[in-house]
Amino acid sequence: MARRMETFFLPGPAGRLEALLEEPEDQASLEAALVCHPHPLHGGTMHNKVVYRLARGLRRSGCVVLRFNYRGVNLSEGDYDHGIGETEDARTALRELQSRYPGLPIVAAGFSFGSRAALQLTRTEPVIERVVAVGFPTKYPNREYVYEVRVPKHFVQSTRDEFGPRTEFTEFYDSLPEPKSLDWVEAEDHFFKSNLDGYEAVIERIGRERPVQLA
Fold first, then answer.
1. Given CA atoms 206, 207, 211, 215 in this order, what sign does their dihedral have?
2. Is residue 215 part of a domain?
3. Torsion of CA 131, 134, 135, 137, to 10 degrees
4. pLDDT in tens, 37-73
5. CA dihedral 109, 112, 117, 119 (to 10 degrees)
6. Of 34, 62, 97, 115, which is least surrounded by CB within 10 A?
7. Which candidate, 139, 64, 72, places its Cα nearest to that of 109?
8. How many domains are there within the chain?
């Protein structure tokens, strides 16, 4: 079965948003995943290697995956908006995913800055049934919104993440309400250097661990 891939533009709050939709290679879609990329001012795009592996791992688990570029990134219009506008861009992409796959459960996912966007979106969007936060940067302040996320929260963190150091991140994670899970991936840095394969395997496993009602 040929895998469906489509690149297109969405009408976003600050202009058009560049998007990429990919369905699973060899099975029907079981879940719809929205994937958010890292910080746009630090080179983050939907083609970032950690984001690509995140999308592929979810796709291999049976998700149709929608990636997009925030405002001002590559072919997306607009300017950086300090995470506020970027979360609204994610909301626009979420609406597109809902309209294309109305019968599927939805998972939000993101890496680094994108994990913050995914969690912010999940906090205010009841349609999202779980969230995968990769490389959550505890070095950034203003984390109180995470405590308001009541759906399952799957965290994936490098053992040597310079933006979410193990001791600091563990303290933060332990303080969060259930439901939650945490996977440490042995790697050299925030970008999972030296173990992208191991990281992707963790993502695929998490993808397959759907709540019973989603199966």
1. negative
2. no
3. -20
4. 999 999 999 999 999 999 999 999 999 999 999 999 9
5. 60
6. 62
7. 64
8. 1
The CATH number of the domain holding residue 21 is 3.40.50.1820
pLDDT in tens, 2-47: 568 999 999 999 999 999 999 998 889 999 999 999 999 999 999 9
The letter for the amino acid at 167 is T
Locate 44 and state its tokens: 């983050």
How many of the other CB atoms lie within 10 Å of CB of 57? 26
Whether 144 is in a domain gets the answer yes
Tell me how far apart the alpha carbons of residues 119 and 106 are, in angstroms, rounded to a whole number: 13
* Nearest alpha-carbon partner for 94 in 82, 110, 83, 80: 110
User: Which residue range is the domain that position 103 belongs to?
Assistant: 5-210
Name the amino acid, one letter, at 22.
E
